[in-house]
Design brief:
The complex is a heterodimer. By secondary structure, chain A is of the alpha+beta class. Helices cover about 20% and strands about 35% of the residues of chain A. Among the domains of chain A are: about 5-55 and about 145-240, Gyrase A, domain 2; about 290-360, Aminomethyltransferase beta-barrel domains (Elongation Factor Tu (Ef-tu), domain 3). Chain A has helices at about 10-15, 40-45, 65-75, 120-130, 155-160, 210-220, 235-240, 275-285; strands at about 20-25, 30-35, 50-55, 60-65, 85-95, 100-110, 110-115, 140, 145-155, 175-180, 185-190, 200-205, 230, 290-295, 305-310, 315-325, 330-335, 345-350, 355-360. The longest helix of chain A has 11 residues, at about 210-220. Chain B has a domain at about 30-110: OB fold (Dihydrolipoamide Acetyltransferase, E2P) (Beta Barrel). A 6-stranded antiparallel β-sheet of chain B has the order 1-2-3-9-8-5. Chain B has a 3-stranded antiparallel β-sheet with strand order 4-6-7. The chains are: A alpha+beta, B alpha+beta. The interface of A and B includes residues 32 and 234 of A.
Chain lengths: ~375, ~130
């Protein structure tokens, strides 16, 4: 239980100074919320901007002549389609098609790529990736401790970050990135995020974390009305859930394939990767279950792990459930048999022994206006 | 520092009781609402339901967590605060006032005497802190 065993990001002290309530998140001591609270943090990200410390994420460098074939062998998406300065969402899969982890793949050039993986899974990922090196001509480096990663998200994010960099941010398209300077600090500036909003993720040297974080808070008018707010893990979760993005260990795991989790769009089955044959077979045989979004009709909040009933029969399970602070509804994602995975299907959720009505709805629950 | 009014009784589960004859009004303490964060949902029992001391009679939920609410005294629910259906955030804003949860007719009002005083609850919180 000793918190000294928990890993800390370079912003740990700053979180405490900001009143962050620190919790154990997969072995990392992270702020679950700050003084403003989850709802205000969530709404700030939707209507103004939110700042997130995501330094706990794992960075793995893949360099060398075979970098692209190597990553293509391990991941479901097609890395050959990436151009220099472009990134994509992908998954590492086992032979049986279930998921080792989901990740972002960044291509700097043909022989220099970066994988960004989840915090709690990064040691397992590193083990998996490095054990498959075989004859590939690649240099692999697990470089997480060298980096801080700060996400600035929301309609005001671009303007705030632009005030700290001469890199023209409007030239960076969604899921693209560039090397630049933020407040004079060499950074990877990436137009990506996990909130459903426009915004950026900035990677820089870990020793510069406090400088970048504080500059972004200042530039975003933290403390003033409609100013930027630092956001904890709870808001990060409700934001991604409103946008129906997957969270490893919930919608995807080593018991779930990407096809079941509506991630067919990142599975390029014409490329040959570990797990492809299993996914081809699953596709041929037809999916037995599918991930759907639902909204509570009755009062009550569905939570992760609650059972789903249709016609008095237990048919599935909630993978993520929560109040949706912007939509002001209680929503969730759940696996149900494919035959029931249709919008408008009535379902029931077992909330502490009481069956409460819910309805399958279209996802994402929230989509920003462009 | 948590607000702990002198005129109330407290449980170690962070409920407060305002005793008036054989009836007690019950809610969660300032410390409890602060630990939970933004309250988004409160589930309360119906009038006429009976509970033993230490039974869970309802639940209060924040964005992230569910917390059961226990009654430290046995008795019958004579009133539930239905306003909390539409405005659960009142539990955060006014935990000892409009954020009250139920009124309970106590089977044995002596049970309330055994609960913590404000001073004892403050000491209890301090011992919990670290």
């Amino acid at each position: 239980m000793s918190e000294t065993n928990l890993k800390k990001t370079p912003l740990n002290k700053v979180h405490r100074e900001l009143g962050g309530k620190m919790v154990d998140f997969g072995g990392w001591e992270m702020p679950v919320l700050y003084k403003a609270g989850t709802i205000k943090e969530h709404l700030a990200t939707r209507t103004s901007s939110g700042l997130f410390d995501v330094s706990h994420m794992g960075e793995i460098h893949v360099d060398g002549k075979d970098a692209i074939p190597f990553i293509n062998h391990l991941t479901t998406n097609n890395v050959r389609r990436l151009k220099d300065g472009q990134a994509h969402y992908s998954a590492l899969t086992y032979e049986n098609g279930t998921v080792v982890d989901d990740l972002l793949v960044y291509r700097f050039n043909e022989e220099k790529l970066l994988l960004v993986v989840n915090a709690a899974t990064q040691d397992k990922d590193w083990e998996w990736i490095s054990s498959h090196r075989g004859e590939y001509d690649v240099d692999l480096r697990h470089a997480s401790v060298e980096y801080c990663q700060i996400a600035i998200q929301g309609p005001k994010a671009t303007g705030i970050l632009q005030s700290l960099t001469s890199t023209p941010l409007d030239d960076i398209k969604y899921y693209h990135f560039t090397n630049g300077e933020v407040d004079g600090v060499g950074s990877i500036i990436s137009r990506t995020g996990y909130t459903g909003e426009d915004g950026f993720e900035v990677y820089a040297d870990a020793t510069k974390a406090e400088q970048l974080w504080n500059k972004m808070l200042d530039a975003g008018g933290y403390g003033s009305e409609n100013g930027i707010l630092p956001c904890g893990l709870a808001a990060r979760n409700t934001l991604r859930l409103e946008s129906a993005m997957s969270l490893y260990g919930h919608e995807i795991s080593d018991e779930i394939t990407p096809l079941e989790a509506n991630l067919g769009w990142i599975c390029k089955l014409k490329t040959d990767f570990i797990g492809r044959d299993a996914l081809l077979e699953q596709k041929r045989a037809g999916l037995k279950r599918k991930l759907v979004g639902f909204e509570m009709v009755d009062r009550g909040i569905a939570r992760d792990g609650f059972d789903v009933y249709i016609n008095e029969e237990k048919v599935g399970i909630v993978t993520s459930g929560s109040p949706a602070p912007f939509l002001k509804k209680n929503i969730g994602l759940a696996f149900v048999p494919t035959e029931f995975a249709n919008e408008g299907q009535d379902i029931k959720i077992d909330i502490r022994g009481k069956l409460k009505n819910a309805e399958i709805v279209k996802t994402p629950f929230y989509k920003r206006e462009k | 520092m948590s607000n702990i009014p002198d005129n109330l009784k407290y449980s170690k589960d962070h409920e407060w009781l305002l005793v008036d004859g054989d009836t007690a009004t019950l809610g969660i303490t300032d410390y409890a609402q602060d630990s939970l964060g933004d309250v988004v949902y409160v589930e309360l029992p119906n009038e006429g339901e009976n509970f033993n001391a230490h039974d869970a009679f309802g639940s209060v939920e924040s964005v992230k967590a569910v917390s059961e609410i226990f009654t430290p005294v046995a008795g019958e629910i004579v009133s539930s605060n239905e306003d909390l259906n539409d405005t659960p955030e009142v539990v955060n804003d006014d935990p000892y006032g409009d954020g009250w949860m139920v009124k309970i007719k106590m089977d044995n009002s002596g049970e309330a005497d055994a609960l913590l005083s404000a001073e004892e609850y403050a000491e209890f919180l301090e011992s919990e802190e670290d």
